[in-house]
Amino acid sequence: MWFLTQHKRWGLLKDHPDYLAVAKQINQVDLYKQAASALKINVPKDGLRSSKLIDGVVWDGREPAKYADAFKVKA
């Protein structure tokens, strides 16, 4: 979803897509969970997390449109 927010920010997308729907079509979450389970790697219960990025901006997977619109510099 983060990549889609950057595409929106830089004008590669005219409108905000349904970020979560697109991510669900692309990401192989169930396959990842199977592989992680086989390797005994814990998987976060909630796939929509937030993270503070290197620039200090917080990415919140629950609000990708808000994130994309918050940049001062954009196309």
Extended strand count: 2
Q: Which shape, going by the Cα principal axes?
A: elongated
> Approximately what portion of the residues adopt beta-strand conformation?
5-15%
* CA gyration radius, whole angstroms: 14 Å
Regions with little confidence, pLDDT below 50 for 5+ residues? none
Distance between the first and last residues' Cα = 19 Å
Q: Which structural class should the secondary elements be placed in? A: mainly alpha
Helix content: 40-55%
Strand order of the largest sheet: 1-2
Q: How many domains make up the coordinates?
A: 1
Mean pLDDT: 92
The main sheet comes to: 2 strands, antiparallel
Q: H/E element string?
A: HHHEEH
Report the total helices. 4
Q: What's the assembly state of these chains?
A: single chain
